[in-house]
Specification:
single chain; 624 residues
Amino acid sequence: MFFEIPFADLKNLPSEILFEVPYIFSIEFVWETLQQVLSDILHEYIDYNDTIDTFHLQSSSTTTINTTDFSQYLTKRAPIRSQQVPYLFEFSQSAQFSSLTAYLQEQNRFTIKQDSSIANVSSINYKQYVCKPNYRNITVVHDILQRIIEDIDQNVSLHSSKRILDRTLTDFIRDRFIGRVIKDIRESAQITSLSTTIIDQNRFIDIIPSVLQKQLQLTVPILQSSYLIFKSCEELFFLVRCLPTYADEFCQAISDLLFKHRESCQKLYLSIVEKNNSKGLSIYSNEWIKDPDINRHLRTTPAFDTFIQMSKNPNRTLADEENVDNIRFRETKETETLTINLDTTDLDIEDICTNYKHIQILGTIHESLNWLYSKLLNYFDVLDKSLTDVKYLDMLSSTVRIQNTKLNLKLSRLNLEILSNAMKTILNLSQDILLVLFIEIRVHIYYYLQLVFRNDQQYVYVIDLDPDENVMNLNRDLTRLQEVLRSTLNKQQFAYIFQGIGVVISSTLINWITRFSRISESGVTKMCRNIFAIEQTVSQIRTVGDAELRRAHQYYELLYKTTPEELLSMIEEHGRIYSEQDYLHLLQLQYKSFVKHDRENFDLQKYKQLVKQALNPNTKKNSA
């Protein structure tokens, strides 16, 4: 039988029954307890007190190695053995475990120790973790914890002494994490100390493995040290993304890495270019680069500017915007600068770098620093954009994405400028080394050609018509240089260094004709064969024939013209091919090469005037 309530009474029942449940805990206490629990868990997973490292260090120090007496196994007669003979081999480091305790110890080797005694391994209370405790776990949970802290601040106003999670997070990152992670990154980058006076060149000049080179899609190898520096910088950029509040500290660490790497490369570079017996003196090409005026001039030349533009756009070629006349004009102007400085200089073998291994190292240093700068440039652009929009920080990592839109990026413009300067020092050293190689090739040419003209008597009294031995040495030198640099430099750098050497050789051969006191017809033949031998070598380097060397070849063939009249008729027929000074030098050498009787019948001044009139016919008409 059910108890029935009259319908009239039902209408009088309240729609809601209001009652109050008393608060057992205040909301402040709830949030405070939540922070305490999260802080305790965080302490374990980030290894706040370096418990794991200390445990392994002490446990490894207590490990003892039992020695075994081998004599009983080596005697001819088997000795009397006791019942318990020690094993000859003990597999203590084997993957097979001798006991359950050893297995648990291996599986929980990163467990934070619960027991007070480290030596007693069997009494350790093992715990199961989601992941291995590591101080770098803070980078994974930082954003989430920061959002929790913000939620707490929005819901309740806690006293600073009760902001446990915020204090734990800040103290750990500021006092423990930053210094430790930067130290570990520096060690992984193998940064040498500033107090080191002698660089371990054998270690520093190691190049990356060929497998890694293919993975990086590099056509030429780079230094292992430069790659390690980049990976360290990349890791620090990742930390900027994970912990943007401490971006200034990480940015300073990146700048420090770059400055130290630049210093190490500078020491290696100077150890190559400086002379062994003379402190402060270096090979001729480096002396040029050390001069700020010459250095500035070389960087403003059209060839260097074209190289910079091609480096920014690798698909671009010289044929895109330049014709043959423009290229020749540019190369001629650059050769004039070299001629002015080298024409009166007597070079010695110590003024050039004859160690091809050193040339190869210089090329590798250039490529490594150039690659490092280009890779870091993208990260720098991201940081620069992040100053105005923090969302650009996403580009610093391919895995981590911004979940907290209120991130506070603390990166000063000053630290960004310091980073920019550090990158510029890397780029400047790279370009200086490239300029040294550019000058070095040309100094090699001048050195060997000087030896050719220094022994000019062999072109008066010719013994054989084979090419000069110094010319053959020049060919061997150029061939070896191109073999070394072709395997060391990219196409743009290789083209920049070797483009224009035909103009250099041709201009030198034509300008230095004045160094001949006399020359015989056989001497002219020998000289033409010298030029032909050089032309073949240059054609192999550049894979095309060089018109400038053919021009020098034709110039010396004019010495076959036995009389000035033949030279004048050639000028009237073909027009001006060489400069007026070049034609006058031919007349002077012809005059000096005549025997005394023929020289008396040769009016040198008269023929000079006739050559000037033939080269400048308009001047004669205007005077008339």
